[in-house]
């Protein structure tokens, strides 16, 4: 069984956003880079599948600049077998271009399972996974929080408004992962040592024409400053009053 | 210039997020000067003629016995077929569980750009510009599209539905081709959430509890306040990770993004990842015993105090108010 896991390097979720001089992108100065949290669930689940089957290969693929190598190395330390680095110095903010570049590299691998995160927490697009499904002509289930594999059929669960969908999907398939699916492991010392010997293949990403363009990136307008309306139980009547008279909610 | 709107139904009910999308579609069509066309995959007509009042000139019903439950491949085909016949300039989806899943497939199939989870749309020099929060709401991106149709999904509860639009709402059948092979993924069943409660993303009022509650049993006081307010209960990640609440209750960067009319944060410190999910709420109330808690920086109204005293008193006050109103 060949599994591909698409992983993206993103700014740490604690990052205070500063806009770059071009007014269109994040200023990378001082940013700590991490593996997209949703992609940790994807990688963890792929590793579990490989461990359960006792065979197979987990290939991690990432499109991005030189710094991405560190994130790929970390994925190898967690247990992936090899890595593909699709070199693009600035990953486009356009998921379709990214999905096309990933699809071009994944197709020749003939993966049985392609894993993605539900969304990358930088652009919050939540697009690449289902786009890969279309481009690779595989069924795709998104935002999966439960996964069982029985032969060539996976039974997965995903949250929808007011409930859960139980979906049956035939392999090969693309799955995007949500929080709640599993608890991702940390790289062990042994894993970190082993990762040093694992291959990272690098080649230029085949990025076509973008389908979107960023016009501007800006900080959100600040919320108008609020105020403390009171202390303890004595504050309750005042809170009720402002909610009725100022906010006109109650 | 026309606008195509994906109309979502579950169990034969047209979902309100689709009326929000129709509302925005109507506003765009007025600026662009074209018609508003809905497309609805369903097992049978869920009452689409009623959508004239919500802003639809025409609604294409893509009926198929398999379309009772969400069928990603089939719905994708139906929306792409509708796009081929209508030749819209804009296709709108709600950024609901279904819309989030469907829109990227349609975009890939049509080879067109998609802006997801948008909070505003403008037409500038005849061109659609989409505004969307990125970095979990810590920044706002404006994007333009190369080519048409422009594909957009809209954040629930941000765009207003219209009522009494008085458009025709003519229902037409859209034949769905059944490209032979069944899709490789099939929804087996839908398990309803135990309480059948309103989803957080669709709630007008949310009361969320955090680690300040000290234990799952104490969520009773959150539930009581929520009930008095007609609200849905949410939670911080700390309490979800502790197993006090299900993941579907989590608000924040790795949970749900919500924009209710009123968000009450109880015993929640206001970590940046929590704020990411709720700072677009219209009114935020924070109840916390620590006057320096970061949540007070985004709260419109703060109450400093012990939640175990304040919340029951607040619940009581709201109940009294409710009693006066009936
Ligand atoms: C990658 C990543 C993603 C994350 N995603 C999310 C997310 O989606 N959602 C999310 O919420 N968090 C998320 N977090 C976690 C976040 O950083 C915080 O750890 C979490 O939000 C804290 O939850 P809390 O406010 O309930 O707990 P705490 O930070 O422990 O705050 C408890 C608060 O309760 C108050 N309190 C205690 N007792 C009382 C009392 N008796 N009366 C009144 N007040 C009281 C305290 O003053 C304190 O402010 C994420 C973190 C990471 C790293
Ligand atoms: N540059 C990238 N390299 C590798 N995988 C990516 C990249 N961008 C997105 N992905 C994958 O697609 C998922 C969704 O990303 P997005 O559509 O950008 O929100 C991510 O969680 C990753 O699994």
UniProtKB/TrEMBL annotation, chain A:
Origin superkingdom: Bacteria
Keyword Coiled coil included in the entry's annotation: no
Claim: Transport is one of the keywords in the record: yes
Domain Electron transfer flavoprotein alpha/beta-subunit N-terminal per the UniProt entry, residue ranges: 23-210
One annotated GO molecular function: electron transfer activity
UniProt cross-references to PROSITE patterns, sorted A to Z: ETF_BETA (PS01065)
Cross-referenced SMART domains: ETF
Keywords (A to Z) from UniProt: Electron transport, Transport
PANTHER family linked to this entry: ELECTRON TRANSFER FLAVOPROTEIN BETA-SUBUNIT, ELECTRON TRANSFER FLAVOPROTEIN SUBUNIT BETA
Family affiliation: Belongs to the ETF beta-subunit/FixA family.
Name of the protein in its database record: Electron transfer flavoprotein subunit beta
TrEMBL record, chain B:
PROSITE patterns: ETF_ALPHA
Residues annotated to bind FAD: 211, 236-237, 250-254, 267-274, 288
Origin superkingdom: Bacteria
Coiled coil: none
GO biological process, alphabetically ordered: fatty acid beta-oxidation using acyl-CoA dehydrogenase
Necessary cofactors: FAD
Domain Electron transfer flavoprotein alpha/beta-subunit N-terminal residue range list: 3-187
GO molecular function: electron transfer activity; flavin adenine dinucleotide binding
InterPro entries attached to this UniProt entry: DHS-like_NAD/FAD-binding_dom (IPR029035), ETF_a/b_N (IPR014730), ETF_a/FixB (IPR001308), ETF_alpha_N (IPR033947), ETF_asu_C (IPR014731), ETF_asu_C_CS (IPR018206), Rossmann-like_a/b/a_fold (IPR014729)
Alphabetical list of Pfam families matching this protein: ETF (PF01012), ETF_alpha (PF00766)
Keywords assigned: Electron transport, FAD, Flavoprotein, Transport
Keyword Flavoprotein listed: yes
Entry keyword annotation includes Flavoprotein: yes
Signal sequence residues: none
Record text on cofactor binding: Binds 1 FAD per dimer.
Protein family: Belongs to the ETF alpha-subunit/FixB family.
Protein name stated in the entry: Electron transfer flavoprotein subunit alpha/FixB family protein
Record organism: Eiseniibacteriota bacterium
